[in-house]
Design brief:
The chain contains five helices and 13 strands. By secondary structure, the chain is an alpha+beta fold. The radius of gyration is 16 Å and the shape is globular.
């Protein structure tokens, strides 16, 4: 990388190297987490299509440094959406469906100890991701969707959709406004991971992670 390359240039270069994009992801959407790390807004990263896992496919732990799994509410966009003043209502209107998902975080920083510039440069610890079956978004109050994270059959954590900026659609609206500063936006067909709803659980070969979300179903990821 040239010494003159800016952070934006570096991210653009990484986007090119990553190949086709599937969409975007949000991090630090929990108010408690923001207070903990001393920021007042989330961070965003991109989702490379090549990093998506098919349902039933295992996570190859050896391909990662220190993988951790967290539950997500995933948006599947039905229409393009962009602009600096996008609201939650606009996000919901542009959303075709939602799904339960698991994001596999990975980090180059030991024990995930990093500054906010570090994590942004590391594409917000993006690793792999798996998305469950899509469910029509109409009529769902995503704030109240209850989510359960289980690790090897033991419930590790519970949360609701409201853990993501008070409403998952509010997190996606923030993403769209952030993208607008770079003349970008969401496109029909994009998927958006709206933010981890609980603390992430470390995984190793032989582990099984299950996420169940009210009205969205259940998704399981085995680790080998």
């Amino acid at each position: 990388m040239s010494a003159a390359m800016t952070g934006t240039d570096e991210i653009a270069a990484r986007l090119t190297k990553a190949g086709p994009l599937a969409g975007w992801k949000l991090g630090v959407t929990s108010r408690a987490k923001q207070v903990q790390v001393g920021v007042n807004e989330p961070v965003r990263g991109f989702l490379a299509a090549c990093n998506g896992l098919d349902l039933g496919s295992p996570l190859m732990v050896a391909e990662h440094i220190q993988p951790r799994c967290e539950p997500e509410i995933v948006f599947i966009m039905g229409a393009d959406l962009s602009g600096p003043a996008v609201t939650s209502s606009a996000v919901l209107a542009a959303t075709a469906s939602v799904a339960v998902g698991i994001e596999v975080l990975d980090s180059r920083y030991t024990d995930y100890t990093f500054t906010m510039p570090d994590v942004v440069a590391d594409n917000t610890s993006a690793g792999r991701y798996v998305v469950g079956s899509a469910v029509p978004a109409a009529g769902l109050d995503l704030r109240l969707i209850g989510v359960v994270l289980a690790h090897n059959g033991e419930v590790i954590a519970t949360a609701s959709g409201a853990a993501a900026l008070g409403h998952p659609a509010a997190a996606v609206a923030w993403l769209v406004r952030s993208l607008a500063s770079e003349n970008e936006g969401l496109r029909a067909g994009d998927i958006v991971l709206s933010g981890g709803l609980t603390a992430a659980v470390p995984v190793k070969a032989g582990d099984v992670v299950t996420v169940t979300a009210d009205r969205l179903g259940s998704i399981e990821l085995g680790c080998v």
